[in-house]
Write a structure and sequence with these properties.
Blueprint lengths: L14 H14 L5 E2 L11 H12 L12 H15 L8 E4 L2 H12 L5 E6 L3 H10 L2 E6 L10 H6 L5 E7 L11 H11 L6 E5 L25 E6 L12 E4 L2 H14 L5 H12 L3 H22 L14 E2 L10 H12 L1 E2 L1 E2 L11 E4 L4 H17 L4
Parallel strand pairs: 1-10, 3-4, 3-5, 5-6, 6-7
Antiparallel strand pairs: 2-8, 7-8, 9-12, 11-12
Bound molecules: pyridoxal-5'-phosphate.
The site of pyridoxal-5'-phosphate (PLP) has 13 residues, from α4.
Length: 393
């Protein structure tokens, strides 16, 4: 029997991938499946980005790049942050990584160890907790409440900080709630964090351009008083429909950048070169693909929210960002995971149970509206028939 480290007894998973695998298997067996489970845009990467990758391959970009990423890409990231938020970032603090997830992996590895507390949103992206547990640190959930429109509460977050707290993970716009934390609340949180100079902040802003109803994004790098301990997580996966390209970026304070670079060298050497050239084209080329995609998501969002609110026992808050809805299903009598599983097996509609995003996810399910409006309408109809005819298991 091979003996691996005990940390693997504690590592978790992202159940949305298991739902995707089951939905794919059912579809392969001939079932008519509507997938509202997975969190990736149902759009193709814009053509000019694809062309840039092809050109890079034709131009001979086949070798290793610097571990931190090619300079023109890091410059493009810095220019993009300057243009969108008037934030000055040196390309020397930008790290190109194989997907946004890698930034959270690195940051949690850097701060997590036994005896340390790490704060993370619950419900939230499941990898935060999984990686915190892997390092042996104590995961401290920050409750993200429906009655607070799924925003972070500054006061509640600050009240959870202890002398053991080393890292606070924020995410707005958020997965799985679609919640957006308002500017005033972020300012209050930042003001409070000024009294906790030993707490680093990982700000997961991967959905920063997916906002509705006139919401604007607050990049955490824009707050000078905590700037020296903010790690920004962002990337191309969602904004440019590039989930499969595996390219993301992080911005690290000087004190941490070298450590992140060393992790990159030890783990993956560099991000594949053509994806980096494609990422430059994404940032420097036409941006209208984003607004078209967001307008389409916005239209679907309205269909999803109205449809869900018409289902028996279901109520759905209106998400302000990302492309997820997290309806409250407590009135149906179903447990969330049992409902998600029964819906997939019996009606072919794939969704994810709220508990896959944390203990506070019980009573909720997540629908991704990265699917066509006709499919969404059909899925809602199937859910309605199911809830009207089946007693809770
Ligand atoms: C909140 C959040 N952060 C990060 C990621 C990871 O993105 P990537 O696919 O670029 O690794 C996701 C993907 O679903 C996400 O929802």
């Amino acid at each position: 029997m091979l003996k691996t480290v005990s940390a693997f007894d504690r590592i978790g998973e992202e159940n949305a991938f298991a739902v995707l695998a089951r939905a794919t298997a059912l579809a392969a067996a001939g079932r008519d499946i509507i997938n509202l489970g997975i969190g990736q845009p149902d759009f193709l990467t814009p053509a000019h980005i694809v062309e840039a990758a092809i050109k890079a391959l034709r131009d001979g970009h086949h070798g290793y790049t610097p571990a931190v990423g090619i300079l023109p890409l890091r410059e493009a990231v810095a220019a993009n942050l300057e243009r969108r938020f008037a934030i000055n970032v040196s390309p020397g603090n930008v790290l190109i990584v194989p997907g946004g997830k890698v930034t959270m992996f690195m940051a949690i590895l850097m701060f997590g160890e036994p005896g340390v507390d790490i704060l993370y949103p619950d419900p939230g992206f499941p990898i935060y907790r999984s990686m915190i547990e892997f390092t042996g640190a104590r995961p401290i959930p920050v409750p993200i409440r429906e009655r607070n429109a799924f925003a972070f509460s500054a006061d509640e977050t600050l009240s959870l900080i202890t002398p053991q707290t080393r890292l606070l993970i924020l995410n707005s716009p958020a997965n799985p709630t679609g919640g957006v934390t308002p500017k005033a609340e972020i300012e209050r949180l930042v003001a409070g964090l000024e009294h906790h100079p030993k707490v680093a902040v990982l700000s997961d802003e991967i959905y920063d351009q997916m906002l509705y109803d006139g919401e604007t994004h607050q990049c955490l790098l824009g707050f000078p008083s905590i700037r020296d301990r903010v790690i920004l997580l962002n990337g191309w996966s969602k904004t440019y429909a590039m989930t499969g390209w595996r390219v993301g970026y992080s911005v690290w304070p000087d004190a941490l950048y070298e450590l992140a670079r060393k992790l990159a060298v030890n783990c993956y050497s560099c991000v594949n070169a053509p994806a980096q050239w494609a990422a430059i084209a994404a940032l420097t080329g036409p941006q209208d693909g984003i607004s078209k995609m967001v307008a389409e998501f916005d239209a679907r969002r309205k269909v999803v929210v109205a449809g869900l609110n018409g289902l028996p026992g279901v109520s759905c808050a209106t998400p302000k960002g990302a492309f997820y809805a997290l309806p409250n299903i407590m009135g149906t009598g179903w447990k969330a995971k049992a409902l998600a599983s029964a819906l997939l097996e019996e009606t072919g509609v794939a969704i994810v149970g709220g508990p896959d995003f944390g203990v506070l996810g019980e009573g909720y399910v997540r629908l991704s509206y990265a699917n066509s409006t006709p499919n969404i309408v059909q899925a809602l109809a199937r859910m309605g028939e199911f809830l009207a005819s089946r007693k809770a298991a």
